[in-house]
Structure formats: structure tokens, C-alpha cells
Amino acid sequence: MIVMKFGGTSVKDEAAIGRVISIVRSRLRERPLVVVSALSKVTRMLCELAQEAEAQHDDNVKALLSRLRERHFDLARKLLASRPELLEEAIGEVEEIIGKLETFVGGVCLIGELSRRSEARIISTGEVLSSTIISYAFNAEGVSCRLIDARRMIITDDNYISAQPDMETTEANVRRIVGQESKGVDIVLTQGFIASTGAGAPSVLGFEGSDYSAAIFGSALDAERVEIWTDVDGIRTTDPRFIGSTRKIDVISYEEAAEMAVMGARVLHPLTIEPARKRNIPIRVLNSTNPECEGSSVVRSDEAPGGPKSVAFRSEILFVRIRSSRLEGVTRMLGKVFAVLYPKRIPVTLAKATESEVCLVIPEEVDGLAEAFDEIRKWAEVTVYRDKSFIAVIGRDIVGFEGLGDKVIGFSGKVYMANVGANMMSESFVIDRDRLQVTLERLHDYIFEQ
Fold first, then answer.
1. Among residues 201, 231, 261, which one ends one of the domains?
2. For residue 333, is it left (φ>0), alpha (ψ between -120 and 50) or beta?
3. For position 346, what pLDDT does the model report?
4. Whole-model pTM?
5. What is the number of structural domains in the chain?
6. What's the confidence (pLDDT) of residue 449?
7. Are 43 and 8 in contact (CB under 8 A)?
């Protein structure tokens, strides 16, 4: 069995879904479990819907619901035009899903309060809608398909928006349910991203968590491989939206891919790697608009070459210096800082410490950050540097690549912090944001074009 996950851009419209059906059809001998995301930009629309409902903007809520309904109705009509009996059923199911959402959002709008649990309920609707229509499309094209609700299988904790799966329960559910539901059909289809708590409440695996879902399914089923279908030819040496001359990475290790994700590369959800690595299941990153391309393979480190693989970056970060007037010691400094940040779920990309100072790289616009800094200021000086970016060169044995730091200083004009990852997989730098583009271009050329 293989797992095939198709992201939002791969299922964005009639043509894209037609390509998906063709790709899946070519792999029927391998008994695929197909995982789909919401249609492109629908999750963003649902997030906006939740915010407008909380703000009690009734007219905006109605407009967003109307757009949501019409987009999915229009897609169903195009995909199922030749099968009116299936179209009628699909439209009925889509209307039922959106009708329930409309009622729920109306309640949020009435009271003007949006809990994390309610937010998860709203934003999980996109995958339910897309999978419903796509399952009908498969059947209409002669590929017998059975839809399984992922919320029956992936069971999580109560952290509704970035929920953590109970892997033991989840894997048992996946093996049992997929084993039962796959009988007598060509494929089974399910959703990425969405799950439910032990009590049955909706939860989601963090934004862009569909990759993670696919890896969980792959691990549970001991799949031959997990395929992640996107709209680019595999994993690139940097973000092609910023650099036109990127190269495809043919083979990369689990550890390097995980480091890329953590450091800001929009390749795979950071948690995707571990379930596959534990079972030694290869991950292939492929392009649904160019299925003939072999893409990139994520494999064991002894199967991947060494050297630089990628330049990752985060364009909008805060660089924070926390200084104590006392020599606290490294352990105590880190302990005191993270005793404040961890309970508030403040994400830290990078931390570096001396006996009296801690430097942090933190994403901008993080909830609870001001309160955390106020608490730390009771015993230390906190300086926040804005308009900064973070750039990292990733690859096994990266420390053996000479002259990297000097080049970054020369390209950027100033480096506020430099760091070699504890796993020796990355060398990273904090620079001024207005120097990011030129630094990225020159650094990428220096590493990959020389």
C-alpha cells in the first residue's frame, strides 16, 4: 500500500482534480490511500469566517458563506456534469455540510465569542467539503472510491488548533478502519489536517498539517512510501518564489528535511518526518502538474549525499536579547526564560545563551509575547529588534563548508547572531530584513552555482 497526499493547489479546481484522478489511476496496483486537503485558499477563507463571526459582522459572515457554497457547488457541477444522479447526491451532501456550518457560525456570531474548539470546528470544514466532492468525482470516472472520515481515525489531545495525536490509538484505528473499508473498492479516500479529540470534539493538526496526516497514515499502515503531491517539481534549494534559479534536490535525508521545515522552508510540515523515519518509509515530493518529474526523495541519512542542500529563511522575525545584571549561568538563564515562554506556547526558532544573556529568534505576531516580555522584565532587560530576517544553510556536514559566515557578513552587511545547529545540520544567521533578498540571491549562487 502507498499513501498519496494532494495539497490545496493540487485539488484547486476541475482541471487539477482531473489530474489527481489520472495520477491515482496510474497507481491502482499499489492500493493507494488518498489524502486530500481543502481546496486552495478555502482554509484561509474559513479562518476569516471565524474571525468575522467573532466580531459579529453578520453581513460579512453571510457573504463568506455564500462564496464558500458557490465555489463548491460550481466545482461539483463541473466535475459531475455527465452524471446527474451523482451530482444531485453531491450537491445535497455539500449543502448539508455548509448548512450545519452556517448554523454553528450563526451561534458564534450571536454571542461574539470564539473558543479554540469552535475555531477548529469551523476551519476543519474545508477538508470535509473537498473530500466529499472528490470522492464523487473518482466514482464518476470509474475509479471506485470509499470516503473515510479522518476524524474517526486520528485521535488527539485537547489542544484543538495544534493538536497532538495519540499515536497508539490512532494507528490502531487506522489499521482497523482502513482494513475494513478498503474491501471491494479501488481506493479509499480521507482528509488531511482534521482529527478529533478523545471526547469526539473537532481538532486540527496545525496549519498545513495535511502532510503530517499522510505520514501518520503511512506509519500506521506500514506503507511502501508516502507521496506528497504539490505544485513544484520536488524540494528546491530555496523558495522559488524568491529565487528564479533554484535547483531540485534529488535525495535528502529525513533529518535534513526536518531541519529545512523547522528553519522556514515551505516543503513539509515539520512533524511530517518523524512517523516516516521511525518506520523507514520513504517520502517522495512530487508535482501534480508535472507528474512525469521524479521529484525528490526523503530517505535515511546513509542513503543521502552530504553537503549543502538548501537555503531556508524566515522573512519576518523578532530578534530578542534578554540580559541579566547577574551571572546566572547558562542553565539558569535558559530555564528562567523558557519557564515563561513555554506555558504561553511562544514558538522559538533559535536560542543561544551565555551566563548572563539569552538571544532568541521568534516569529512576529505571536499571541502572548508582550505579556511574556513583561514578566521577564521583572528580573532582566529585554531588547526587541524588529525588521529582522533569519537565513539558514542546511545540509549534513555543513560545518565543513568553508567561508560561509564571512560570505553572509559580506552579502548582508551585518549579522546580529550566528549559530551552528546542535545536530550539525545547519548554520544560521540573523540579518536586517531589507538585506534578505540580496543576501539570499548571492548566498544561493555562491553555494549552488560555483
1. 231
2. alpha
3. 92
4. 0.89
5. 2
6. 81
7. yes
User: Would you list the DSSP string of 345-402?
Assistant: T---SEEEE-SSEEEEEEESS-TTHHHHHHHHTTTSEEEEEEEEEEEEEE-TTGGGST
Q: How far apart are CA 245 and CA 237, in angstroms?
A: 9
Q: Whose grid coordinates read 506555558?
A: 343
Q: Mark whether 104 and 221 lie in a shared domain.
A: yes
Question: Count of CB atoms within 10 A of residue 75's CB?
Answer: 23
Cell readout for 9 is 493547489
The H or E element that residue 101 is part of is helix 84-111
In a domain, 315, yes or no: yes
Inform me whether the pLDDT recorded for 88 exceeds 90: yes
Q: How far apart are CA 359 and CA 357, in angstroms?
A: 7
Instruction: Reduce the DSSP state of residue 427 to 3 states and report it.
Output: strand
Q: What is the mean pLDDT of residues 91-113?
A: 97
Residue 295 located in a structural domain: no
**169 in the same domain as 48:** yes
Decide: 280 and 334 in contact? Cβ < 8 Å. Answer: no
Give the structural domain span for 380. Answer: 310-448
Q: Under 8 Å CB-to-CB from 343, ≥6 apart: which residues?
A: none
Question: Residue 304 domain-assigned?
Answer: no
Q: Could you identify the residue written with the cell 515551505? A: 266
Look at residue 229 and give its three-state secondary structure.
Answer: strand
Residue 396: how many CA atoms within 13 Å on its side-chain side? 14
Tell me if 280 sits within 8 A of 273, measured CB to CB: no
**Block residue for cell numbers 512525469:** 292
The span from the CA of 287 to the CA of 23, in Å, is: 11
Q: What angle do CA 72, 123, 317 make, to 5 degrees?
A: 120
Could you tell me the strand order of the sheet in which 226-230 lies? 145-147, 187-191, 32-36, 2-6, 226-230, 283-287, 296-299, 251-253
End-of-domain residue from the set 207, 231, 255: 231
349 domain-assigned:
yes
Same domain assignment for residues 30 and 172: yes
Can you tell me which residue has the cell 543576501? 439
* C-alpha span between 113 and 158 (Å, rounded): 19
| Amino acid sitting at position 198 | G
Supply φ then ψ for residue 351, to 5 degrees.
-140, 140
Residues 322 and 196 in one domain: no
CA 333 from centroid of its chain's CA atoms: 32
pLDDT per residue as tens digits for the range 307-336: 899 999 999 999 999 999 999 999 999 999
Distance CA(194)–CA(229), nearest Å, equals 18
Instruction: Measure the CA–CA gap between 164 and 158, rounded to whole angstroms.
Output: 8
Q: How far apart are CA 283 and CA 217, in angstroms?
A: 12
pLDDT at 270 over 80: no
pLDDT recorded at residue 360: 96
Domain with 82 in it: what CATH number?
3.40.1160.10
